[in-house]
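Preliminary data (for renewal application), magnesium ion complex.
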Amino acid sequence: MKTLDDLVAELDGDPTKGRRVFVRADLNVPLDGQRITDDGRIRASVPTVARLRDAGARIVVAAHLGRPKPGADNSKYSLAPVAARLGELLGTEVPLEPLGDDARTTVERLPAGEVVLLENIRFDPRETSKDEAERTALARELADLVGPEGVFVSDGFGVVHRKQASVYDIARELPAYAGGLVQTEVEVLRKLTQDPQRPYAVVLGGSKVSDKLLVIESLLPQVDSLLVGGGMCFTFLAAQGHGVGDSLLEEDQIANCGRLLESGKIVLPVDVVVADDFSAEATTRTVPVEKIPDGWKGLDIGPESVAAFAQVLASAKTVFWNGPMGVFELAPFAEGTRGVAQAIIDTTRGGGDGTPGFSVVGGGDSAAAVRALGLPEDGFSHISTGGGASLEYLEGKVLPGLAVLEESP
Ligand code: ADP
Ligand code: MG
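Predicted structure:
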């Protein structure tokens, strides 16, 4: 893979200066109306863009926000708040341009070292089309923006598992480079897959039960223990014969979960916080997993589970964590996530035997939980910007957005 270092060296040695660079970033941040509630992904994208500015490039950034629907009013998916925040962080104005003639004019006139952000690339349905010809047509329009001398920098790690026009197809139209963020993420994940320091513990939670069962399947042979919390633990508890009340449950996966339990590596909660309603005002109780009452929902792991998980984590030397242990967005169900996150931080700083461990947080909501709960981001070795992408990498899948960079001449 060619890297940002390679590109910067080329730009520095280029007498004409000011080449145009098309950067795909991941700026898909959570919004509350126009307010960005967590700008982690924007901050993570700044170093690559800043380096290109210093090298005198003229920079076109493309990104998506959410999942706009064709024909609907998609104004809430505008990248306007993101353009403003990106500009603040870069210390320059970042104009936002919808794809089209105006964008072309803006890019043509862009001074060296300046940046333009294209409006939500998913407003164009060809971005995510299954039809390669449609995607290629969009990719060619995007490539045209940066002209015959233009190059592509792939820095949206959170989307490299997607075969999409601004991620994959454009890398076949232009000389392609891995951005600094993509490079860092890949180096970290490689460390997890190639000879991790043992014991290696993985903590999985969150709500995407059936998605993550596949991950569990492929991770089990590689790890020493796999701690399961969050919404998906209930399908495992059901496989052990426990009633789970109104908790999240995927009935068609119970048999699968039972089979995975035979590995002997899966650690499940021993107690859970149940609620009579999915709300911060609900009545709650902490019960052993054998006694989840009918009609109640399990929304967090309990304190004894946190202690049991922390004990496993204390002796681990490598930890990967994806998915919150409970509905951390609501205060009564945040303690499981806080406790497990703290145990991972303790291990990172020097666990049972005082030697520092290596820890990676993957997953948009897990990373957001770290910040929302006021935990120190530098307590972990690395916080990944890509949930789905990091999971697919760990599963050993080929990520199209990375493979295409390796093929770039
Ligand atoms: P990530 O983005 O880190 O990969 P997911 O998107 O899979 O994580 O899941 C995050 C969501 O899972 C959070 O919004 C959280 O509220 C929810 N969640 C966690 N535990 C439970 C539970 N017991 N019941 C329902 N939802 C849960
Ligand atoms: Mg998520």
